[in-house]
Amino acid sequence: MKKTFIFCILLVTYVYGALPNVASIDVIEPDIQGAFYYPKFSPDGTRLLMTKEQFVGLWEFDLRTGQTLLISNAPGAGYEPVYSKDRDRIYYLQDTFEKGRRYRSLMEYHRNTKGSQVLIEKERLLTHPLQVTDHGVITRTQSKVLLVGKDTKSENPQTRFVHTFENRLTLYENGKERELYPSGRGNYVWASLSPTGDKILYHKAGEGTFICDLQENILAEFGYANAPVWSPNGQWIAYMKDYDDGHFITESEIWISSVDGKESAPLTNTKDIIEMYPQWSPDSKALTFHDLSGHIYIMKLHVTE
To answer: CA-based, 20 to 30 A from 25: which of 76, 277, 286, 296?
Structure first.
């Protein structure tokens, strides 16, 4: 179920250049009780993946039927899961702990059988984000890059992806890795390739969010912009501006920016709701996010064609 979210939120009806503005915001109400976090759209936009606090468990909510499906109860299962391109499978991680050490396994959930199988078992390090291909999913273990799937397992696939291996911005291309330092040495997080595959969005601790090309030339700056994500059409960046008192998050709003960083606008403006971690719909016309209390929202945008 969902209900229209109409209280104390600024529906941005003014226009910042070609930036979208807010058409409506709905609260999603799963058919099971509890707080949910980190929602993510399916490739066709009809479902949401979501998790509990500290990424424990993984559920799928069907926006058409209002039904919720349990995928896994495992610790870590809700941390950046991804769908296969045909939407029949969901890839996620599963954490286990032995003698105080964490191990991660890469899992594949089959929609038809409603069961999971292990693709990579108990690695000390599996990097994010997982990258989906036509043949499976790509991840990096501590020692190698692997492409794995239902009928596939190969090393050093001929592809391109970016990740933050041990907080270092790392570009993988055609079997080789190289570290990038577009903003100098330091800790890099939230890195992702553009939809066209020729630019990198990243955040450097203490400096902000940027876009660079594959030769490390900075193309755009966004300042204080956490958890940034590309729109699938490559035109905008959504992110959150969150603040804390040293112990707890005290404020957070969802923002949008043009991809060149020249225009930006808040999409929410609330005093009593802390909105966090936006994710785009596949058509770039909506965002989903959660608040600190565990409510899930879908924001529909008015996009000028």
So the answer is: 76
DSSP conformation class of 127: -
Name which of 139, 153, 147, 48 is nearest 92 in CA terms.
139
- What is the identity of the amino acid at 253? E
CB distance 129 to 80 below 8 Å: yes
Enter the tokens of residue 280.
Answer: 């785009």
- Give CA–CA dist 174/279, Å, rounded: 28
**Structure confidence by residue, pLDDT tens digits, 242-294:** 999 989 999 999 999 999 999 999 999 998 999 999 999 999 999 999 999 99
> Is a pLDDT exceeding 90 seen at residue 149?
no
Tokens encoding 88:
């029949």
Residue 164: φ, ψ to 5°: -110, 75
The first and second tokens of residue 19, run together, are 């930036």
**Per-residue tokens: 81:** 């899961």
**If you count them, how many residues does the chain have?**
305
- Strand segments (E) across 130-248: 131-133, 136-140, 145-149, 152-155, 160-165, 168-173, 176-179, 188-193, 199-204, 208-213, 218-223, 226-230, 236-244
CB 179 within 8 Å of CB 169: yes
The pTM (predicted TM-score) of the whole model is 0.91
